[in-house]
Amino acid sequence: MKKKRMFWVLTSALLLAASAGLSLHAQNAQPYQGVVGRTLAESKEWWPKPVTPPAGAPNVVWILIDDAGFGASATFGGLIDTPTFDVLANNGLRYTNFHTSAICAPTRGALLTGRNSSSVHEAGFSHVSASAGFPGWDGRIPSTAGTIAEILRDNG
Predict the structure, then answer these.
(1) Tens digit of pLDDT for each residue in 47-92?
(2) Nearest Cα to 26, choosing from 121, 115, 87?
(3) What would the 3-class secondary structure string for the chain be?
(4) What are phi and psi of 91, to 5 degrees?
(5) Spatial distance between the Cα atoms of 67 and 82, rounded to a whole number of angstroms
(6) Half-sphere exposure for 22 (CA within 13 Å, toward CB)
(7) Ordered mean pLDDT values, 10 residues apiece, the chain (156 residues)
């Protein structure tokens, strides 16, 4: 039980360190600027420029705490002493207004995308055998709903 709790604490989650005022958004892919001919000799190769972070971009630490109440850690007024979380939270951002669901998939879908769970097809259980077959219930986040990992990657 102690190992499980340690794993839970170490691998857990809230966006604690980010920059105030940083505007991240999905970037459109660069249009292909090469030429695809019928042969290699008629073709011109092209690679998009690598994405680089904007000047002054912060490091982002995303910590996800699963199966814990909001007030469990001392950082948010709970009884579990979390000095490292306290330091991170005191030097970053604390998000304290988040909708959760009774099951994990909708909550995680919303956390990963920053959108309502139904709008990213995570209204219920994600596995297809439990899919209700209705809009918002198929358990597959569409590519149009970028996750935080994709948005951070695309912004360097």
Answers:
(1) 888 888 888 888 887 777 767 777 788 988 899 999 998 998 898 8
(2) 115
(3) CHHHHHHHHHHCEEEEECCCCCCCCCCCCCCCCCECCCCCCCCECCCCCCCCCCCCCCCCEEEECCCCCCCCEHHHCCCECCHHHHHHHHCCCCCCCCCCCCCHHHHHHHHHHCCCHHHHCCCCCCCHHHCCCCCCCCCCCCCCCCCHHHHHHHCC
(4) -115, 10
(5) 16
(6) 19
(7) 42 32 54 92 90 83 74 88 90 79 84 89 73 76 87 82
Length of the chain: 156
The tokens for 126 are 């994600």
Residue listed under structure tokens 């972070």: 53
The one-letter amino acid code at 88 reads L
The token pair that represents 142 in the structure block: 């569409």
